[in-house]
Input
Amino acid sequence: MKKFFLAFFIACMLGSCVTQKSDESQISEIVVLPHHGLTGKNIDNYYENLQKEFRSFDRIIIVSPDHFGKSQKYIETIPDIIAKICFYQKCVKSQSFSEYNNAKISNSKIFTKNGDTKEHGLGEHILRISKFFPDANVTPILVRPQTQIQWADQEVAKILSKLPEKRILVVASVDFSHHVRESVALIHDQIAVNALKFRDPKNFSNLEVDCRNCLAIAKYLAQEKGKKGFDQILRTSVDTITGIDSDIENTSHIFGRFTQIPATGRDQKIFVYFPDFSHNANFRNIEKNFFNHYDSSKNPMNYYHRIFSAVDGIFLITENGEVKNSENFSRLQKFGINTTLSKEEFSKQFPEYEDYLDIKNETTIPYIICNDDIPKNCNKYFLEVR
Output
């Protein structure tokens, strides 16, 4: 935790937490924080540092996924007849997002008439706000996560940028990689942080997070307020917190803030090279066993999505650049495998990995993941069939 505090205050000293002084409405701070219960101590520490830095906020906006799909709307807020939001008996003053959706009557399944909610994307932050910023009005914005970035994401950001209060904190409540091993989560998280630094929000659709739309709203808002950079303050995961290899039960967490200082470096692209097993007679049986283990719904798209969703491109390595089984390949294309590469061309680019992709058995499928560095920086992995 000492490293966390040091990074936090160094960021301030470098100017990334300097606030604008003007008579116009102002977003004091836009942050990305997790809501996973295992991160409670680190969330406490982050809010404590915010209190030391800003002392108070007039209004705190929490942009959270609607985890349980209880809303009929894409954007949900608390009805304006409810005066407080409570999570496990900890309450804060509520303020509806009436600027976007003026809900006059309470028909929400997310909040009771007394303002109680079980939505932990809000609740984990309500617990801290009630302690560190008890006088702030809290506006919940629940987003029903979509596979694509919506026009409403930018519209919400524009409205937030013009709110009348002078001191506003915006929290994008987002957990990052879900149900992937730590080695792969690190790759997904690198891509997501790079996206927050360098990419336009409309290109957030492939990020492996639980609410890419929440991140898009935060990024659009940062652009509206001239915050061109993003500082990652802390990264944790189930594995790093517990010290245990949690396998596919692993979830990762990013703590960070948008800054006035533009990000340095560049947006690295990450590619996967995957051998063509689609012609193998046993391929469907391998897939079936694999997905039955990892996905109770037996949906074969789920695991490929978890592994490959965030990468910038997937190459299927074939003997001569052509697939032998078009039916199987058409299914693989749905998983994101979109380009073929002949084994000869692959060997020219990656001679040290040629033999690795030749490994064939019924329990593992090899693949490599590479950054677009020169020379390319690659790592070897296995899809394990259990």
Remarks:
- The CA atoms of residues 86 and 116 lie 5 Å apart.
- Residues 182-198 form the longest helix (17 residues).
- Confidence is low (pLDDT under 50) at residues 13-23.
